[in-house]
């Protein structure tokens, strides 16, 4: 009898999850996604943020004020070769993306769109996975803003959307 090693995807993945607020209704769906990703990828790292990426992320949502990681440190820790999947409904007030001080949690020194652009510039492949029904996307201004920042690499959190996103990230 010969043992065959388990095949696991060698792509390194960094997942950033939006938590809280309007994302609460998508918790079960995100948990299933995370569970599937954990079994698929040999190297999977994850962090949380709220609404938009700003100057820090965290590992433990319950203790988020104690487990913060500076976003610059995130960029310096994870190389360009990581595939980044941002999971969020992209639904917030426009000033949270476009304005200094727009965060609903604290006084951010730079607008969220600046951090999203940095994320896209640092990593070779980034995609936004949106659990909101795609037919509703045009009703929310910030979905359009973020979709534009991600150069239309926003995918619905459906089987087809995940498949399309995976094809894009694997290229």
Structural class: alpha/beta
Please give the domain count: 1
Helix fraction bin: 25-40%
Any idea of the CATH topology? Answer: Rossmann fold
Strand content: 15-25%
Strands of the widest sheet, in order across it, are 2-1-5-6-7
Number of strands: 7
Label the overall shape: globular
Q: Order of helices and strands, N to C?
A: EHEEEHEHHEHEH
Largest sheet: 5 strands, parallel
Overall pLDDT confidence:
93
Which class in CATH terms?
Alpha Beta
Q: Report low-confidence residues grouped into runs of 5 or more.
A: none
Whole-Å distance between the termini?
37 Å
By CATH, the architecture is named 3-Layer(aba) Sandwich
Rg: 16 Å
* Helical stretch tally: 6
Organism: Acinetobacter bouvetii DSM 14964 = CIP 107468
Protein name: VWA domain-containing protein
What does this structure look like?
This protein has helices at residues 27-40, 71-77, 95-98, 112-122, 141-149, 159-170; strands at residues 9-18, 41-49, 56-58, 68-70, 83-87, 125-130, 154-156. By secondary structure, it is of the alpha/beta class. The strands form two sheets. It has a five-stranded parallel beta sheet, with helices on one face. Strands 3-4 form a two-stranded antiparallel sheet. The N and C termini lie far apart (37 Å).
